[in-house]
Amino acid sequence: MSQDLAPLFAQHIATLRQRADQALALGGFDHLLIAASTPLRKFLDDQDYSFVANPHFRHWLPLTDTPGSWVVYTPGNKPKLIFVQPRDYWHVVPAAPSGYWVDQFDITTVRTHAEAVALLPKGQRAVIAPECPSIDGVEANNPEVVVNYLHWHRSYKTPYELELMREASRIGTRAHRAAESAFRAGESEFGIQLAYLAAASQTEAELPYSNIVCLNEHGAVLHYTHFDRTPPKQSRSFLIDAGASKSGYASDITRTYAAAGHLEFQALIDSMERAQQGFAAKVKAGQSYADLHIHAHHVLAEVLREHGLIRLNAESAVQSGVTSAFFPHGLGHPIGLQVHDVAGFQVNEAGGFIPRPQGHPYLRMTRVLEPGMVVTIEPGLYFIDMLLEELRAKPVANDIDWNKVDAFRPYGGIRIEDDVVCTNDEPENLTRNAFAVLS
């Protein structure tokens, strides 16, 4: 890490305490109880799914593998960590708390989940925890007034959070470089995935989401997670959407590559690269994210025209739904403790919902950008058989060069994604900065 995290963490906790004070006052609660949660048991089995700690717990602590533990906050008092360190020879037991963050907490270590629950304060309690799996002796009420307030303010990252996200980006870009090298060396999707994991030094369970590793036409499947074990007979294209984690914070990065000699597809990637960078440059205070998404459709219409795929002007291509057939998902989403982070549609700290633009059901954010927000910018251009067949049945099909479309189908598609911070000045592109360090 490039900074000493202790002072940043102290500022972070001070900010969280202020937010919690206000949220609890709004709801009339005395205490905020946040469960790390426990693993979910597999059906008809004696094994658990991989544990993922409650993001609210990870907001207060850089602990990602302490099931059964609790954060307890009472206004006017130092936050408490009830730390479960079981007597267990079947599993790795969490190490005793240490590091830059421990001075900000009163820490009590117990051996069982039941002991932890017994130490929770009584009174009016806002309990933030998943309803499943349930917690014996505690009801997770997740009061809406408290959760809405905390989610709204979680949109504004503290300097501590941004530093962890920068490190997550550095880990992810290092692994992306390894994945590209594996692709150039002729590896299978599975082989590329292994190269990625090795370079990131993270297991699949530790990554913030399941990697998308696509060769050739597989790039047309937006959430392709199959991993062919054998390389294709002919390598044409490679799309990888993969992130990394740092102390519970995520990076989310996508790149698309053309195999050597596939010049027309490379030219299409180059056009998408320029468009994507233009969108990233607009991550500025006051910019409506929904408007930026619609703007992206108009720009991508020009890309389609430039490469001879359509003959429509941009406005007609957007209004008729042509661009949505090639770009069917949203421009991006908030990111932080969760890859698709919370409050992307909230009206204000009390809740509410800002609707998506008509005809764009998969956009994951509609708020106006403000300093401290971090969003992804990930335009895509795909050749998806199902959507193209629907498009072919419309009158506007006459304005599409289907021979060109068919020539690009074997490449699957293109997606380019960066994580970008909205600031009081020019945006900070976490992804591009991390790649530049590796150059």
TrEMBL record:
Entry keyword Metal-binding: yes
Cross-referenced Pfam families: PepQ_N (PF21216), Peptidase_M24 (PF00557)
Binding-site residues for Mn(2+) 2, renumbered to this chain: D241, D252, E417
Enzyme Commission code(s) on record: 3.4.13.9
Signal peptide positions on this chain: none
Sequence ranges assigned to domain Xaa-Pro dipeptidase N-terminal in this UniProt record: 8-152
Record domain Peptidase M24: where: 163-424
Keyword Electron transport (UniProt): no
Keywords: Dipeptidase, Hydrolase, Manganese, Metal-binding, Metalloprotease, Protease
Gene3D superfamilies: Creatinase/methionine aminopeptidase superfamily, Creatinase/prolidase N-terminal domain
Cofactor field: Mn(2+)
Catalytic activity: Xaa-L-Pro dipeptide + H2O = an L-alpha-amino acid + L-proline
Cofactor binding remark: Binds 2 manganese ions per subunit.
CDD domains: Prolidase
Binding of Mn(2+) 1, residues: D252, H333, E378, E417
PANTHER family: XAA-PRO AMINOPEPTIDASE 3, XAA-PRO DIPEPTIDASE
Function of the molecule: Splits dipeptides with a prolyl residue in the C-terminal position.
NCBIfam families: PRK13607.1
Similarity comment: Belongs to the peptidase M24B family. Bacterial-type prolidase subfamily.
The protein's name in its UniProt record: Xaa-Pro dipeptidase
Organism (species): Dyella acidisoli
Lineage: Bacteria, Pseudomonadati, Pseudomonadota, Gammaproteobacteria, Lysobacterales
Gene: pepQ
